[in-house]
Amino acid sequence: MESKPQKMPKVAKVKNKAPAEIQITAEQLLREAKERDLEILPPPPKQKISDPDELADYQHRKRRAFEDNLRKNRSVISNWLKYAQWEESQKEVQRARSIYERALDVDHRNITLWLKYTEMEMRNRQVNHARNLWDRAVTILPRANQFWYKYSYMEEMVGNIAGARQVFDRWMEWEPDEQAWLTYIKFELRYKEINRARTIYERFVYVHPDVRNWTKFAKFEEQHGFISGARKVFERSVEFFGEETMDEKLYIAFAKFEENQREHDRARVIYKYALDHIPKDRAQELYKAYTIHEKKYGDRTGIEDVIVSKRKFQYEEEVKANPTNYDAWFDYLRLVESEGNLDSIRETYERAIANVPPTKEKQFWRRYIYLWINYALFEELEAEDEERTRQVYRACLELLPHKHFTFSKIWLLYAQFEIRNKNLTMARKMLGMALGMCPKDKLYRGYIDLEIQLREFDRCRILYEKFLEFGPENCVTWMRFAELETLLGDTDRARAIYELAVNQPRLDMPELLWKAYIDFEVSLGETEKARELYERLLERTLHVKVWMSYAQFELASADESNVELARRVYERANLSLRGANEKEERVLLLEAWREFETQHGDESSLNNVIKKMPRRVKKRQRVQADDGTEEGWEEFFDYIFPEDEATKPNLKLLEMAKAWKKQQQTNDEDKEGEDDDDDSNSSSES
């Protein structure tokens, strides 16, 4: 027989796969089950016991159930507690006591078990049993504070004060936490045992040596009228903590105690002692309290001392946060100097100068170097210690990295200090050393000024020669050297110096030098030499200011034809600038020339200059970027001079030709428009 193929069961097809309109969540199912109380079993029916046999049967069944639970798991203390509480409810105290003892054999370190056991004994007024239990509990578990609290409380409630005190004494032998000691003290105070409480405090502050506890001890003495005792407690606490572990809270409490006793001088001494010995970062509250005290009871000097101390603390914080904040050091030093304590000022200066800038860049040393300068000035002017001042200057000069940079003011100040102390040889030696190690313009000038004041002109000449060898391009040096020779009456040397100067290949400010040279010749009345200098200068430059100065010079000269000479200079200048195509400078020249002719010329000469004046026109030019692309147009003003137009006669003809060509183009366009209109009219007629 052929076996039929096994048919697969048909899978039910879901026609509508869209979600239902109302969605039911698991939370909703649980909430409905809770509301309908589906899982809550009905309570068992109440059973009324009517005779002793039925009671005995009930107790037997319950005890067997409890014992079965205990056999299943002896370590579950809740089963023991339920069993014992049930026996107690049946007035079977002895049985309950037995159950508790069995439970203690299982877990004698369970605090709840001991508490329930003793509470049962106390409820049933079994005081001796409870006392024995407490005694056993505190012996086995002496660190469980609950036992000690309840034990002492029970003894106090039954009126056994001596027994309670004995319990506290046993407890204190274990050195419990602070609250236990305070509880013992309150217990003694309830029975007016002040001396006993003081004895407990004596032990307490050594077991728990905290500032808060010493303060409580002192307040206890103060509250009970023992003022001297409170002061002794504070003094003992200060000795106990010493200077290494000083706390501002203790001194604030001590000072406020003295303030309450109107001992303001004592309070002030306490505040000052604390401020001198406690680190500044841990004395903020102390500063506030001291300030308030001085504002209440101090005089003006005391208040100022407080403010100074507070500002000192602020500066200390600033320099501690950033030791290279030299502005903070300056303010701090100014404050310390106002107090006048030399040792403190020196110590602060030494701390300040110890913060050397970390890099060898001059910009970071500019503020720092003034610390050394102020230190040296303080030693010289305030402390009047010559040797220390010299040491400060030398230490500063040794510290400076002269190969990278130097500070001329330090060398000069040191030299001036030595001169003030009549030590000229040392001053010259130091300045010579400075010029050898790190020559600078300021050093040369300072050294030269010093020798001029000493009237050592030969030395000045030597120094100027060295100075010019060091910087031959410095025009000011040449000018001052020549001025020195002029003052000394040696005009030939001065003129030679000027000649050397103007022949230098490179100068930083040649215009000043030439002006000084010309003024020098003018002051000597050498007009021809001054004129020669102007001509030599014009060979080098054609600047408009040189021409204008030349014209003013000619005008101011004593010659009778000075106006004509000045006019010639203006004419030469105009021709020169016209050839150089310097339009703006030429305008300046013509304006000056016009003003000159207005004051010193006649009408024809003035009209001649006015004809040369340009007219200003606005023009446009293309603007090109750096990469050559065009960025648009910009407007600018240009000057058109009549002289330039006269030299270009074809310019006007070209403009007229352009205008004619433009007119012709417009005429041709109009004619083409008329022809187009005629053609359109003829086509419409056809």
Automatic annotation (TrEMBL):
SUPFAM superfamilies tied to this protein = TPR-like
Q: Does the keyword Manganese apply?
A: no
Identify its protein family.
Belongs to the crooked-neck family.
Q: What is the lineage of its organism?
A: Eukaryota, Metazoa, Ecdysozoa, Arthropoda, Hexapoda
The protein's name: Crooked neck protein
Q: Using the record's annotation, list all stretches that form the Pre-mRNA-splicing factor Syf1/CRNKL1-like C-terminal HAT-repeats domain.
A: 385-533
The source's domain of life comes to Eukaryota
Keyword ATP-binding assigned: no
Q: What is the protein's species of origin?
A: Timema genevievae
Region annotation Disordered: where it falls in the sequence = 660-686
The Gene Ontology biological process annotation of the record reads: spliceosomal complex assembly
Q: Where is the composition biased (Acidic residues)?
A: 667-680
Q: Where in the cell is it found?
A: Nucleus
| Annotated keywords | mRNA processing, mRNA splicing, Nucleus, Repeat, Spliceosome
Q: Which terms in the GO cellular component ontology are assigned?
A: post-mRNA release spliceosomal complex; precatalytic spliceosome; Prp19 complex; U2-type catalytic step 2 spliceosome
Please give the InterPro entries that the UniProt record associates with this protein.
HAT, HAT_Syf1-like_N, HAT_Syf1_CNRKL1_C, Syf1-like, TPR-like_helical_dom_sf
